[in-house]
């Protein structure tokens, strides 16, 4: 049953990633909260669109997400996410952010060595296979990426924690009401 394999993989990876990286993510969430609270902007870019759109509009995220993309500056926080190991789009975006003096948080497969080197915080989505998990007869390439779902979940875990850290410090962000 391919659907059970996908479901079990998603649930397993989210649980493992959270268990193995919770303290690491939470420690860095406080840093991000302080940077944003002290005037940094928050940007999110993903190579497949999912995390980027999920980060504010689709799931009623913080209004500050990508609100100042045309005004990126030193001291901003830029979260980048990819389902593919070392996606060129994300490498380029992380390099640009780093060159500007931004704090880069990446969510990517652990074998994304270039993205890892460009990141201040690297969150492993535990998905080395990239865009395809399942081999299905009749298809030349694997299908069924689970990394998008895992990336979205890890982004929300990290976002929830840095928002919590902001609120503890009296910096209360605004949230979208949602499109639905």
By DSSP, the count of extended strands is: 4
Order of helices and strands: HEHEHEHEH
Shape: globular
Q: Helix fraction? A: 40-55%
Mean pLDDT: 93
Structural class: alpha/beta
Instruction: Let me know the largest β-sheet.
Output: 4 strands, parallel
Report strand order across the widest sheet: 1-2-3-4
Tags for this model:
alpha/beta; 5 helices; globular; 4-stranded parallel sheet
Folded structure, characterized:
The protein is of the alpha/beta class and 180 residues long. The protein has five helices and four strands, in the order H-E-H-E-H-E-H-E-H. It has helices spanning 2-37, 50-58, 88-100, 113-118, 147-168; strands at residues 42-46, 77-81, 103-108, 121-124. Strands 1-2-3-4 form a four-stranded parallel beta sheet, sandwiched between helices. It is globular. The two termini are 32 Å apart. The model has no long low-confidence stretch (mean pLDDT 93).
């Amino acid at each position: 049953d391919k659907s059970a394999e996908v479901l079990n993989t998603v649930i397993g990876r989210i649980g493992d990633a959270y268990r193995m990286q919770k303290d690491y993510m939470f420690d860095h969430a406080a840093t991000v909260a302080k940077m944003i609270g002290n005037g940094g902007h928050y940007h999110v870019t993903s190579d497949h669109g999912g995390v980027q759109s999920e980060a504010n509009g689709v799931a009623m995220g913080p209004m500050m997400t990508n609100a100042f993309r045309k005004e990126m500056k030193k001291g901003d926080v830029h979260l980048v996410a990819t389902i593919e190991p070392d996606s060129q789009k994300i490498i380029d975006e992380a390099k640009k952010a780093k060159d500007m003096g931004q704090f880069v948080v990446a969510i990517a497969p652990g074998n994304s060595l270039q993205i890892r080197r460009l990141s201040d915080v690297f969150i492993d989505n535990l998905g080395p296979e990239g865009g395809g998990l399942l081999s299905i007869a009749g298809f030349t390439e694997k299908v069924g990426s689970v990394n998008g779902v895992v990336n979205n979940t890890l982004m929300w875990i990290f976002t929830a924690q840095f928002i919590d850290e902001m609120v503890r410090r009296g910096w209360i962000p605004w949230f979208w009401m949602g499109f639905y």
